[in-house]
Structures are given as C-alpha cells and as structure tokens.
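Form P-L/3: holo structure prediction, ligand nicotinamide-adenine-dinucleotide.
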Amino acid sequence: DALADAVGTLRLPARIHVGYGVRQQIPALLAEHGRRVLAVVDPFLATSPDFVALLASLEATGLEVTTHTGVLPELPVGSLTASAEAVADTDPEVVLAYGGGSAIDAAKLIATLLAHGGPLSRFYGENAVPGPIRPIVAVPTTAGTGSEVTPVAVVSDPDREMKIGISSPFLVPVAAVVDPELTLGAPPSVTAHSGIDALVHALESYTAAAVPLDWTGQLPLFTGRNVLAAPLALEAIRHIAPFLARAVRDGSDREARAQVALGSLLAGMAFGPTGTHLSHALQYPIGAITKTPHGLGTGLMIPYVLQAAVAVVPSRLAEIDRVLGGTEPDDSVAAQDAVDRIADLCREVGIPSSLAEIGVEETQLEHIAELALNSKRLVGISPVGADPGVLLSILRAAHS
Ligand code: NAD
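OUTPUT (holo model):
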C-alpha cells in the first residue's frame, strides 16, 4: 500500500505481559497503583485454584482486596450500577479485572461509575467518559475479546433492542497480563466462540477502510485502516488460524493455547485503535434476535462479509491468504482462497454456516440490515460501503 495517505496510531496499556507464568507479575503491577484493590471476578472462576492462589499472593504482598463476583451474563446496565454501589465504600485505588470479556468489561464500567457516577447511559457511544477512571489491571481467562487492551466495553440495556458499546481512551487498562495457563480450563464451545471472535477482530481490523482525517480536529477514536495496527492484525491471524482447531479439540494442548492467547492479544492491540466493521454491525441484531454468543455470530458472518470484499480489497485479502499458508501469486485468486480458508476454519470449530440454522427467518433480514446501519462507527469503516442493498445481499447470501 502507498504510504502517502497512511495514518498510524496505537493506544495501549503501559504494560503488557504474555506467556505461561506471567500472572506472577500481578501483585507488583497492582501495588504500583495503591494498596486497596477491588477484584472484579467472573463468578464461575472466583473459586478456581488459580484465582484462590492469586488472592493469597495479593494478601501476602500486603494488598487489601475486596472481591466482587456480581458479573451477570450480557452485562445488564442495572447490575453494573448495583455492583458499583455495593463496592463504593471500599474506595479502591486499583481494580483487578479477572475473567472473560464479560468480567473485564464489567470491571471497566464499575471503575467508570466509581470515578464519575452514573447513569451509565450517559457514557454510551464514543468519547463520552469525561476523564480517567480507576486504573485497571486486566487478566483474561478466555482468548478472544482483547478487552484487556481495548478502549471498549459492551453492555445490554433493557430499553434497547441491541447490546451497546461504551468506548473511551480512558477505558484502556493500565496493564494487561495474558497467561495462557488461565485459559486451559475453558470448555470447547467457549474456546471456539472466543477464538473466532479474536480472529474476526484481526480480519476486520486488517480489511477496514480508512477514516478520512482532516488534521484540524481530534483523531477519531477508531481510525479504520492504520499502519501501526496492520502488522499486529496479520500477526494475530498467523498465531490464531493454525492453532484454534487444536485448542478446541484438546483444551490441554499448551502450545495451541499459548498461540491462540498471543493471537487474541495481538488482535485486541490491532482492533482497539482501528475498530471492526460489518460482521460486528450485523452480529449485534443477529445476537439480539437469536440469543447466540457474539463469536458465533461474527464467525457465521465473516466469510460472507469477506466474500463481498474480494473484489474491493483483493490485495489485503491476498496478504491474509499468504499468512494462512496460501501460495497463489495472483491477488484476486488468493483473495478468494483466503475467504475459503476462513470459511473452512469456522466450520471446523463448529460455527454454523447459515443464518437459517440459528433460527433467523428470511423475513427478518431487512430489519437486521436496518439495525446494523445504526452502528455508524462500524459500518463507517466497512470496506464495501454501508449501502442497505449491500448489507441485505450479504445477509441473503448468509441465509441461503
Ligand atoms: P465471557 O466472559 O462471557 O465468558 C463466557 C463463559 O465462559 C462464562 O460462563 C465464563 O464463566 C466462562 N469462562 C471464562 N473463562 C473461563 C475459563 N478459563 N475456564 C472455564 N470457563 C471460563 O466470554 P468472552 O467471550 O470472553 O466475553 C464475551 C463478552 O465480551 C461479551 O459481552 C462481548 O460483547 C464482550 N466483548 C468485549 C470486547 C471489548 O473490546 N471490550 C470485544 C469483544 C467482545
């Protein structure tokens, strides 16, 4: 790609540690920010031997820890407000976020409420958080969302049809500790859905259109294509694609777990500054209608979204094909090969390949396209534009 118009920007935690054993760093990282720690923990993992051992090491370091396990699936806004009220008296100086994307997002929003008060709805969308929140040390136990390094948290609001994002530079954790050991217990479906979530982050980050910048105002929170994020996205694909099916088949495969954990982290580092596009815009309404997991929906849609992009960004898809092991020299042939390889991988890990299979009726497709168009920041960096007809044709292909 020509560099003349290229822009690069990254916004990341000051410390990022990855690899087996790096969880030993957590006490020192927390202690840099204070002694009073609020641990926001996935309720299922709160009694796991790894978390119990971590708590003991925090206490041995002299930290005062309050553990909060009120993280509910889908993060209803009311539960987050209740959580913030329940822990406010402990006045934490630093927050430990421990669990999958749900627990990390919950920690981000509790830390936001503690710093700025509610209601949470005033922070919906981009750049609405007015200033720094309590510092977060994020420790993921799934390899998928990248939330440990992104400025994003996703909630559900009973007044809204779809889940809604809160995105702000202040939501980027101060430290991310990615220890694949903590993902070894994740069951096959969680491994598949979260792993595909990460792969789609990388694919959409790498194929996003650039947001035009006029340099008179602020950099947008999400830039679309971005020269600093692009190599991270390709590296993420290189680490996830060959190893995800192995991690799903055998959760105790330490090599596969390490590769997918690293890939998920790199994908988060890539899409945090760029944003993602159509699979995400379409998954929000599809997930709301079918109550299927985020990674299942984005994984179902990604082959159809990339298929629509073959004629538009063939060189980008050809690069992806080479990372996936393709040797085809012609870009347009290689682009198609990349889409086929991604579709095969999604099928191999159990992602359904049609919207009909997950209960979407053909008559619902137009409404899904309309709702997806409301996600302006996502469709705004779509490589194939945001025409309702384009979205509908992608949905029809995915339904047939
Ligand atoms: P999750 O956090 O919802 O966890 C899914 C299930 O897996 C839960 O039952 C949890 O208890 C269990 N689990 C987690 N780790 C485990 C482990 N090591 N062993 C056994 N069980 C384990 O799943 P997720 O996919 O990590 O997160 C999904 C959420 O993240 C959604 O709300 C999604 O919208 C959001 N998300 C956020 C971002 C972001 O940038 N903030 C990006 C993508 C998705």
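COMMENT: Residues 254-274 form the longest helix (21 residues).
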